[in-house]
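re: that chain from earlier
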Amino acid sequence: MTAEKLVSLDDLDLVSECSDSYEFELQDAKGKDTGIFVSVVGSHADKVKAWQFKRTNEIRTRMAIAKRKGKEDDITLAEDDAELGSEAIAIRVTGWRGIKEECNFQNAIKLCSRNPVFAEQIFRESENLANFTKSK
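^ sequence. v structure.
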């Protein structure tokens, strides 16, 4: 009979692993390498979750205030939804190489909102948990 290998719950921490950046090269719309490298955190990283909670709470607060003022429906504009989507992807970006401008949240929003093919790649790589899971 072989001894069963036990794993500690402390070793099962995908949230912490998702907080480590993963770097990849962006490709253009034709699938060619661009020479631009982006570092992202995983979708379960504390940074991403904190941003999601903050934005959700802001929306809920705005809706509650509108309701108190007698407005039954708080209308969200399509432009607001698009901006929220770009922000939700940009918050995952932690760094880049090959872009002249400084990597910060506002510039990451600009990158994502003006380049949907890049935004899709950033989102996909951030969602791919294999990029953040350490081999045991």
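The helical segments are 14-18, 46-68, 78-90, 105-114, 116-127.
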